[in-house]
């Protein structure tokens, strides 16, 4: 599910942030879009779950298979998309305008200047914001429960294209809650192990964000 979320949200979010910051005209329409994106970043996650239920699980049921892991991944992509867009724009804003002016003064086009001069300077901030947004998606349960995630799945998911449209799927936070709520001591031990796995995954992602940021900052 996280792979689907990243594959959809990263290119769309970064591309949208670049367009709004570097190419969009500063008019009322752009200002309205900017305000709405900032507001969407603070919308409760359950709202995205209801939106995903209607759009992906019902409106596009022919493509997603209804309440499936594909619908869950697309819903989480919508959830973190505003965060990635805002992080991308803030990283681009931090790049001095003198770099843009120098590139265009040498005859480069707007896109060439952004691609070869601005983006390399903004990549640390963009990657840090993106990975932190994905870290948020890992712990979200309300949106995928609304889409149809099961509280307990007694079998391993199928890693095929057809398996993405299976009606029974779940996520690690939901499974942890299910195990903790059971009275048997064995389920508590399994829940503790799953919590450790989830924490390790979060630490790895956050450490990766710090490493990427420091790597690009040292290479400037």
Shape, per Cα inertia axes: globular
Mean pLDDT figure: 82
* Helix and strand pattern: HHHHHHHHHH
Q: Please report the first level of CATH classification, the CATH class.
A: Mainly Alpha
Strand count, sense and barrel status of the largest sheet are:
none
Q: What fraction, in percent, of the residue positions are helical?
A: over 70%
Put simply, the count of helices is 10
Tell me the structural class. mainly alpha
Counting DSSP E segments of at least 2 residues, the number of strands comes to: 0
Task: Indicate how many domains the architecture comprises.
Answer: 1
Question: Any descriptors?
Answer:
220 residues; single chain; mainly alpha; 0% strand; MetI-like fold; 10 helices
Question: What does the model show?
Answer:
This protein is an all-alpha fold and 220 residues long. It has one domain (2-218): MetI-like fold, CATH 1.10.3720. The chain is built from 10 helices and no strands. It has helices at residues 2-23, 28-40, 45-59, 61-64, 69-93, 97-105, 110-138, 142-147, 172-180, 185-218. The longest helix has 34 residues, at 185-218. The chain starts with a helix and ends with a helix.
């Amino acid at each position: 599910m996280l792979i689907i979320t990243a594959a959809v949200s990263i290119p769309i979010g970064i591309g949208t942030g670049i367009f709004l910051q570097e190419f969009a005209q500063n008019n009322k329409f752009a200002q309205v879009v900017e305000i709405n994106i900032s507001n969407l970043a603070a919308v409760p996650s359950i709202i995205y779950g209801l939106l995903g239920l209607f759009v992906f699980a019902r409106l596009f049921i022919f493509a997603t298979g209804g309440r499936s892991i594909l619908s869950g991944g697309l819903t989480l992509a919508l959830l973190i998309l505003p965060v990635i867009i805002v992080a991308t724009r803030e990283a681009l804003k931090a790049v001095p305008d003198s770099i843009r002016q120098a590139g265009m003064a040498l005859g480069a086009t707007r896109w060439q200047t952004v691609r070869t001069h601005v983006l390399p300077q903004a990549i640390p901030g963009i990657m840090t914001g993106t990975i932190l947004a994905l870290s948020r998606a890992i712990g979200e349960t309300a949106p995928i429960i609304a889409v149809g995630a099961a509280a307990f799945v007694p079998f391993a998911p199928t890693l095929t294209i057809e398996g993405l449209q299976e009606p029974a799927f779940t996520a690690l936070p939901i499974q942890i809650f299910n195990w903790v709520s059971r009275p048997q001591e064995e389920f508590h031990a399994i829940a503790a192990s799953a919590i450790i796995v989830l924490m390790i995954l979060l630490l790895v992602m956050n450490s990766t964000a710090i490493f990427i940021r420091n790597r690009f900052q040292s290479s400037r």
